[in-house]
Amino acid sequence: MSNTTKIQVTISNRTVLRVIFIVLATILGVRFLINIAQPLTLIFISFFLAIALNPAVTFITHKLKFKKRAPAVAISYLTVVAILVGLFLIIVPPLFSQTRDFVDTLPDTIASVKDQNSTLGSFINNYELAETVDNISNELARKVKNLPEPVIASAGKIGSGIVSTIAVLFMTFMMLIEGPGWKKDLLRLTTPSKRKYYESMLSRMYEVVTGYVNGQLIISVIAAGFALVALLVASTLFGVSINAVGLAGVIALTGLVPMIGTVIGATIVVTVTMLSSLPLAIVMAIFFIVYQQTENVTIQPYIQSKKSELTPLLVFIAAILGIGLGGLLGGFIAIPLAACLKIVVIDYYQRKVKPESE
To answer: Does residue 147 belong to any structural domain of this protein?
Structure first.
């Protein structure tokens, strides 16, 4: 005969309530993080921008022998804002003007396509594509007619973006002024024996972030320079008038986002040039494909390989996640943030995990 043992598990009311409380707290915590995701993103962006601008502030403070950081912060900050505003004024108005001209000339363009005396018109008639062209032209006309609707619908998003940008600029300015004081106050909370260790960790992270920012800035300037030369040469050969400086400025801004920034900028530039000349757009598309491949195997690895201490795959993943969470600015800060996390993880492993395994 076999003896059977019955096991009875008793769960107290306190345990049940504790589990319910933990589940509810987890749900509320996740909802809370989702609700504050955008403000947290803006804070992180401001933090990394402040770190990126800090070397310039420190340089100006020592060079001009200011007793306080505020004047140096104002000089460097206003310089950056002036550059951004200047790029905006160079890029945006011509793009709007070129788009408006394209919309105005669209009926004439469609009519010229249907002209039987032209080469393209003969091709359409010979292959009986007139009905297809009519459908396409009617669809384009409908979309152009309804163009104000998405513009009005996007007004709220544009306004939200402006408010977010102002918030980032304000927080960055205050962080540049108060940052050194925060660092001292935080280090005072640690014991004297660990203070040197934390100072070393902060210095390593600071070097990673500033090195990355400087490297990415150099990469974006190089990309914009090559794009400017290509735009000037190609537009001259095809006899097309375009805003080459403004389009190169687009490459400079989007080029700050690693790995995929140039692709985003190239898409914008090719689309804009297509409004003026299809052959010009094709030439620029070929140029950007060749340049992107060259940059990925030469310029990018050479400049950034020792700055972020991350593999190309981790750089790409970090950039994608950053763009998904915070747009282009999120993509900009994602790589230095990943590099800082790598420093923390490796340090933890060396101090805690490795000694225990030995």
So the answer is: yes
